[in-house]
Structure formats: C-alpha cells, structure tokens
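Render this sequence as a predicted structure.
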Amino acid sequence: MAQDSQLPHLGDGRSDLGRRRFLGYLLAAPTLVSAAELVAGGSGPKAEAAVHSPPQPAEIYDLNDMLTDAARATSNLIRVQVNSDHIGQSLHLCPQHWVLGQ
C-alpha cells in the first residue's frame, strides 16, 4: 500500500493524481473485480427476476411474418412452368401481365 509520504502533494493538502496513475487505476479496476468474483466463487445470493414481462413485439410479429403477409396478396398470380426441351428441362416463371389503361 502506498504511504502518504510517497504521494506528491499539492499545496492545499490534496494528493496529485496524475494521468499515469489514473490510467493505472482505470486498467486495474476490472481485473481486481474479476479476481474478487473468482475468489468468492459466486457464494453470494443470486438475483432473479420475479416479475415476468409480456412478450416483446418482435416475438409476436417479426420481419419474416411481415414479408410473408406482404407477399401473400400476389403469391397466386405467379405461374411456374417446367418445359422439357432439347437441352433438358427448363423452368420459367410466368407472372401475369395486367394493363391498367395507360
């Protein structure tokens, strides 16, 4: 432990906390906390939530559901045609064409 005589003092009695010392404390703190948790072995009581929350909106209706619902209106308008030609089989997607009076 550092004694009070080793710390540089300012004129008003405060100890000078330099940049290097501050960074040392900043880097050492997480290491010390982790070491203390390992030594203690989690012997303290565990915190558990007693209140159950309702499901989040993403659990009820997510992006996949939205894309399925968006495609459902036009899903029966696409015709898939499999042709057997001289090279083998070919697959054609044949959407219906609508002209709306332009």
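Summary. The beta strands are 78-85, 88-95. The chain has a mean pLDDT of 77.
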